[in-house]
Amino acid sequence: MCGIVAYVGPKDAAPILLEGLQRLEYRGYDSAGIVVANKGLKLRKVKGRVADLAAAVPARFKGGLGIGHTRWATHGVPSDVNAHPHLDGEGRIAVVHNGIIENADDLRTRLEAEGVVFASETDTEALAHLIARAVKETDTLEEAVRKALKSVVGTYGIAVIDAERPDQVVVARNGSPIVLGLGEKEMFAASDVAALVRYTRQVVHLEDGELAVLRADGFQTFTMDARITSKEPLTVDWDAGHYDTGGYEHYLLKEICEQPETVARTLRGRIDDRFHVAHLGGLNLTPHETRAFRRVKIIGCGSAYYSGQIGAQLIEELSRIPADAEPASEFRYRNPVVEHDTLYIAISQSGETYDTLAAVQELKRKGGRVLGIVNTVGSAIARECDGGIYLHAGPEVSVASTKAFTSTVVAFALLALHFGRVHDLSPADGRRICEGLRRLPDQIEQILKQDEHIAALARKYAVNPSMMFVGRVRGYPVAREGAQKLKEISYVHAEAYPASELKHGPLALIGPEMPTVAIVPDDELLDKNLTTLGEIRARGGEVLMVGHRTPDPKLAEDVIVVPKNETELDPILLTIPLQLFAYHAAVALGRDTGTARARLQVHGRWLMLHGFPLRQPNTAESKIALVIEPVQSADLAPIIIKAYQLGRREQQITRMVASGLSTAEIAARLCLSTHTVRDYLKQVFEKVEVSTRSGLVAKIFADHYRNMPSPDLPIEG
Fold first, then answer.
1. Topology of domain 453-594, per CATH?
2. Which of 290, 398, 429, 505 has the fewest CB atoms within 10 Å, i.e. is most exposed?
3. pTM for the full model?
4. What is the strand order of the sheet 65-71 is part of?
């Protein structure tokens, strides 16, 4: 997975490209590069983070046309040479690419036989040479790109520029996302909306097999056989403020802490208290059609797959329909049997996960009925499915899925409730589940208040080289998701097993250097789970228990107590502390979590200090680049938050007050009563030493902008 961004317009492209790459860095961070067109092509690319690239770009790097890339290596090791963009031998054509060209070796061999000298080990460079040859034989860059792509087998999202046509960018998609952004006399393209939202809310999603030519005054889309297509722009409801850290140290922590609100948004307007059912109009299923399905099959990748396992359990328990989950990558490759009475559900936060999209397309070809659970409106999977559920969780910047995972499981609970009430779930049980769903945001809030306790446990256990995660039935997918989070965030090896399977081999690994995180809810399996803890302790293994009560100290050294909900919904809450645990383990181990930042007030003005590690080739020497700049408006509220040590809710409300929202609007956004919002506001006033909303806003802005001409007052987010 890599990130690409492109710009054409009257402004200097380089700053726009660099900012876009910073917002896309979650898609790849082993190297980065940009190229701009200005009397030829100017190229800068480096091994390392986008910050390393920014330090390498000179001040006079001007040009109103450019493309950029942040890479996650597939072909060729991370290096300056292998970083994108890639140029042809004459330096006329530049290409950035997300995807994998499967016949790259064959193309390389053919081109080398024709005298082409390759500068890198990447598959993408072959494409640059192919386009360079085609452009000499065609009338347009678009035609040259189309001709070159006919030789390519694999997936791609690409952006191409030609030094001799410095007024256009050509982009193309097959399996990797490309989104166009429509501005005023300027155009953008990127692999994710995140790179675009600061400049435009009007976007167009390319379909697989489509190309687009972007000029400052507009765009035109085509198919691979040169037919013109018509595209209507969508309005994105996310804004740039969603992509700020909001006073948190890292995006990941911010997104974990947003879950009370994101869960509330997923539930909003979807619970019927009269009949104790779920309102899911986007399913496009009548009750008769719903009853006709005899089985449910759920597909997804990574955390989406684990959320699908919890979803399958919910559907079986509440609706008594057989359900199971499977990795989408396995499903698409194994020639599955597609049954007319099976409902298929595809899960993807981005709505662009290629393996999941390919599985959906295969299901559609074979006549399967497919629903989607996605977070991104207008995404490829959302467009392919027959219906589905949008999560409304907001953008997820971190690579590790947290709030989207939780909202997905909540969406499955709604879906299971809907199916159950159509089948045999009683009104009393329906009411019980509805009440449980409504309790979730407050209960997640309670778990988040244990942050310091969980951080201390993470520091204790992070020193171990490996950890085991175990759970039974409802707890097993929770254990799998916990192990996944620990691995991908902290890089600590972790394995998850069903608790009953420990005795069939894995128990031999248990010892003092292999602690176990045990998921132990208060359900019908409590006694069996406690017996498993005894088996682990008998072999000298340390136990961190996550459950609803404090166990006998002989069974567990440490415990994280989670609020009890309805038994079917407990897995939703049991995952939250595991997210915090993984995050704090990463912090304790000093894993790469982004740039270091500090704030300084000088003569009434706030300054922001950014520290970036600079990687030196072939040396262990470590150097830091320090960038000092005036604080931007979007960072002012976080500064006040830090300066006065505001709590999480106080932070959110301060930002919203600074954005001009009324008390009622704040209450609606945070799913709180107006009375509660006023109580929080009083607490903020006391800490900041003001007595009114206007006084708070003045505190944020007045000193900073004293003696400054033409202040830019609006605060985003």
1. Rossmann fold (3.40.50)
2. 505
3. 0.78
4. 41-47, 31-37, 65-71, 3-8, 187-190, 179-182, 202-205, 234-235
